[in-house]
Amino acid sequence: MIHEIATLTVNPNQAASFEAAVAKARPLFLESPNCLSFSLDRVIEASGTYCLVVGWTSVQAHIETFRESENFQKWRELVSPFFAKQPVVIHTERVTKWA
To answer: Is residue 73 assigned to a domain?
Structure first.
């Protein structure tokens, strides 16, 4: 499994509305058979900053399958009005897991 980690920046005054939009959009990810997990974390040190962490079967499943889907377009329609900056997306692969 790989993780897509997207750093999302929104206006802090819109945080509650943004979080509600992400909750509404969550099923759009989970409907994909290649999506293994989905979470949104609020960055404590930076108001209005979030990390969206999505587990995928592969980078290709995210980039080539999900991003080309109608559900990705719906996701962007729901959340992009809240973005104060362009999202920054990276993909990670776990090397080890500690208890």
So the answer is: yes
